[in-house]
Design goal:
The protein has 228 residues and is of the alpha+beta class. It has three helices and eleven strands; from the N terminus they run H-E-H-H-E-E-E-E-E-E-E-E-E-E.
Length: 228
């Protein structure tokens, strides 16, 4: 056998051996636990502000200060805030996994102020706790696509309104490396949450306002995990 032939054989067999060992190591640890943190997007803020505008809480653009200083109508939008999540996944095959998780998200919201014989204020800011289960397809070990049902526990500022809704979650995720005990994880999750009418009474008057928050939101998450 020529030396060049030996070099070619070794160059093929050694990487194959290493890859095979890595694959077995990954298969020996089919359970992964991941902790993610990140940011939520979309949220109910603009939707609530538009509803408050239609209810008569119009923006006073000429007022340089807050509504309670200027004494005129105004509305304020709050953007979505942070998100955190804990996820458990189990690889059934090299291409199929199931998982479940919990997450906590600041959805933001909106508030409105106006003067109609009495000072009126409506505040609607929401947080959500989510419990979900999903199935995932992994076309390659580092990539997953999946979705499933989710239960959403929603509460507004001060817990004045609490709502439970059944919705859907969809996820696009990347984990790297795919064959080591510890991993880095990135996920984009779409949470589809049905809306529901919520009745508010102004804190300083007896006026009722019915709002329908759009709780559907997106999470962008990054974190670390371990395979067991």
């Amino acid at each position: 056998m020529r030396p060049i032939d030996l070099i070619l054989i070794v160059s093929v067999l050694v990487p194959a051996r290493v890859h095979g060992q890595d694959a077995r190591d990954a298969w020996d640890r089919p359970i992964s636990v991941v902790w993610n943190v990140g940011q939520s997007f979309i949220g109910p803020g603009s939707n609530l502000v538009n509803q408050l505008l239609r209810a008569g809480y119009r923006n006073r653009t000429l007022c340089p200060a807050h509504a309670w200083v200027c004494g005129g109508p105004s509305q304020v939008e709050s953007a979505p805030g942070g998100a955190s999540a804990l996820t458990l996944r189990y690889a059934m095959t090299s291409e199929l996994a199931v998982g479940a998780g919990i997450s906590w998200t600041e959805l933001g919201g909106g508030s409105g102020y106006r003067w109609r014989e009495k000072w009126e204020e409506i505040r609607s800011y929401w947080d959500v706790s989510t419990v979900w289960a999903a199935a995932f397809w992994m076309p390659v070990p580092e990539l997953r696509l999946g979705g499933g049902p989710a239960l959403y526990g929603l509460s507004d500022e001060g817990g004045r309104n609490e709502v439970s809704k059944l919705g859907l979650i969809g996820e696009y995720g990347i984990e790297y490396p795919s064959n080591r005990r510890f991993l880095l994880d990135v996920a984009v999750r779409l949470h589809v949450v049905p809306s529901e009418d919520v009745v508010y009474r102004s804190q300083l008057s007896e006026t009722d306002v019915k709002l329908s928050p759009n709780w559907t939101h997106v999470q962008v998450l990054a974190g670390i995990g371990v395979r067991l």
